[in-house]
Backbone:
């Protein structure tokens, strides 16, 4: 028997007693106390994207993140590999605001061609005199230039000096003060060479983290093992400090995170177990926007909701930039592969914007979603036509396995797809957000093992869907999903739901309202009163409760409320 085979047997010869989380620590959901403890006493490690995005955040978001990081004092730490990547990518990040501005201006001016063409068509139809036609066209172009001028002012007044000269760069100045004495040293040459070999082995075997960077191998500079080098240095520092680790990263790829429906739930179990095995400490992970919300709740840092949203938006944009740089390189070498891969990203964006209805037993096609979004006004008819053309190209290439596109044509395909995807990303209408929110609630209730069916909208429109009541056969719990684009769930909303409660069908025993909005004190008091009453003291009245769900951390609140509603 080898040492590995006897590792779980103590010297007494008796096997170790194991619990359900032994070997599966990554599936443990952190409690509020866990977050408080790691924020107040843990080792806080920031990834490269967190530092580079300081150039992309607006002034308030940047200030909030820097103030949060300052709170950690000596417990804040940056791996040497992170600083290496920061300096290699800093100048590109510096150029982002101006580059994005010029790209947007170019797109706006290019897009003006159609309105001018439409105007000239109308002018001809009504035989408008030349002087009036010139005046109307001038007003159209002048309005666009006014908008462009306002955009340039926004960039110029972003509140930060970003200079290639490090002595004039405000981000560098802030980081110099913040990170003095908090940056790890490099691996020595021999250890670095060994780590590069190990990193490449892990990529081939898809051992996290870093295997999703396999596409970087074509560069020939070993950058594909960067994530593993960060991870290795983090493990070494965790051993020295003997403190739980909170890794703050904007990277949401599956080689770091355990996900559900593309939503990060927590670190991969392989990573939590490796850190526990190597350093004896627990791993936590947060995206920067979630760090800001915890800083507001637990560290008394002044953080506005606008700052949280700006950080979330910038992180998403940074991931998009990296993705399209890869697709553009692919288009230059393999146009067929580039087209098929790009269309996959289009379909992902479509399903994020308008997810399938989980209660229907069919999967909506990409073009069906495009048509529905155009019909609902979520995207323009022109963009819908562009998507149809891209889909036709993709289908032709996918069916033949060969591309008839030139390199320039493949790059144009990628560019048009990016325009579609970015338009979908900013389609932040309450309708689209509400659909995503409702799908999340349906998913979590389904995963929790409850039987769910759609509400009969022809009979009743007072709730979104219903769940079979396990305690009372043939009866149901009504679930009402209420999405708010702003504001709180207040007393008026509560009164409205209480009025509806009495009008529910006889086979509905209780009502559970799930909302994304904060609950005002009146609603919290109502919940406390309802929870405190037993089924006997309810005296035959139907049970009702309002639950706030913000993300997967709140899943247990919905499940517990649902179980209470079945008593």
Residues:
């Amino acid at each position: 028997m080898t040492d590995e085979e006897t590792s779980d047997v103590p010297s007494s010869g008796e096997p170790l007693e194991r619990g359900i989380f032994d070997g599966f620590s990554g599936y443990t959901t952190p409690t509020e106390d866990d977050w408080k403890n790691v924020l107040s006493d843990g080792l806080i490690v920031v990834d490269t994207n967190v530092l580079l995005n300081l150039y992309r955040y607006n002034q308030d978001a940047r200030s909030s993140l820097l103030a949060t990081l300052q709170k950690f004092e000596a417990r804040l730490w940056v791996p040497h590999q992170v600083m290496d990547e920061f300096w290699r990518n800093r100048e590109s990040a510096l150029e982002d605001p101006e580059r994005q501005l010029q790209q947007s201006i170019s797109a706006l001016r290019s897009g003006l061609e159609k309105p001018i063409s439409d105007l000239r068509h109308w002018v001809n139809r009504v035989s408008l005199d030349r002087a009036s036609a010139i005046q109307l066209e001038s007003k159209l172009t002048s309005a666009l230039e006014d908008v462009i001028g306002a955009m340039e002012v926004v960039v110029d007044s972003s509140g930060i000096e970003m200079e290639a000269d490090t002595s004039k760069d405000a981000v560098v100045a802030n980081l110099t003060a913040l990170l003095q004495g908090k940056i790890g040293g490099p691996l020595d040459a021999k250890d670095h060479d060994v780590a590069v070999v190990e990193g490449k082995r892990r990529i081939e075997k898809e051992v996290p983290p870093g295997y999703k960077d396999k596409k970087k191998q074509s560069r020939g500079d070993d950058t594909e093992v960067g994530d593993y080098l960060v991870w290795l240095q983090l493990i070494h520092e965790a051993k020295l400090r003997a403190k739980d680790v909170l890794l703050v990263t904007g990277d949401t790829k599956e080689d770091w995170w355990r996900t559900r429906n593309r939503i990060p739930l927590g670190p991969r179990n392989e990573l939590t177990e490796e850190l526990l095995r190597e350093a004896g400490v627990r791993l936590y992970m947060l995206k920067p926007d979630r760090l800001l919300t915890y800083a507001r709740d637990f560290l008394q840092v002044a953080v506005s909701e606008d700052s949280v949203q700006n950080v979330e938006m910038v992180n998403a944009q940074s991931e998009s930039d990296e993705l399209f740089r890869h697709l553009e390189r692919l288009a230059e070498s393999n146009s067929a592969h580039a087209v098929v891969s790009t269309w996959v990203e289009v379909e992902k964006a479509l399903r994020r914007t308008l997810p399938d209805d989980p209660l229907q037993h069919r999967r909506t096609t990409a073009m069906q979603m495009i048509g529905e979004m155009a019909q609902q006004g979520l995207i323009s008819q022109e963009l819908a036509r562009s998507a149809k053309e891209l889909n036709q190209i993709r289908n032709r290439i996918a069916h033949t396995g060969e591309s008839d596109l030139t390199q320039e044509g493949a790059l144009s395909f990628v560019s048009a797809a990016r325009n579609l995807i970015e338009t979908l990303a900013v389609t932040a209408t309450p309708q689209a957000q509400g659909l995503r929110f409702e799908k999340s609630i349906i998913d979590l209730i389904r995963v929790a093992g409850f039987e769910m069916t759609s509400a009969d909208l022809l009979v009743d429109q007072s709730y979104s869907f219903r769940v079979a009541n396990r305690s009372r056969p043939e009866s149901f719990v009504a679930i009402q999903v209420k999405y708010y684009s702003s504001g709180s769930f207040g007393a008026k909303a509560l009164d409205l739901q209480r009025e509806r409660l009495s009008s529910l069908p006889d086979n509905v025993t209780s009502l559970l309202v799930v909302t994304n909005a904060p609950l005002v004190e009146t609603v919290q008091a109502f919940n406390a009163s309802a929870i405190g009453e037993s089924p006997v003291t309810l005296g035959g009245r139907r049970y009702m409760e309002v639950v706030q769900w913000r993300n997967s951390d709140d899943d247990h609140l919905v499940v517990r409320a649902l179980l209470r509603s079945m008593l």
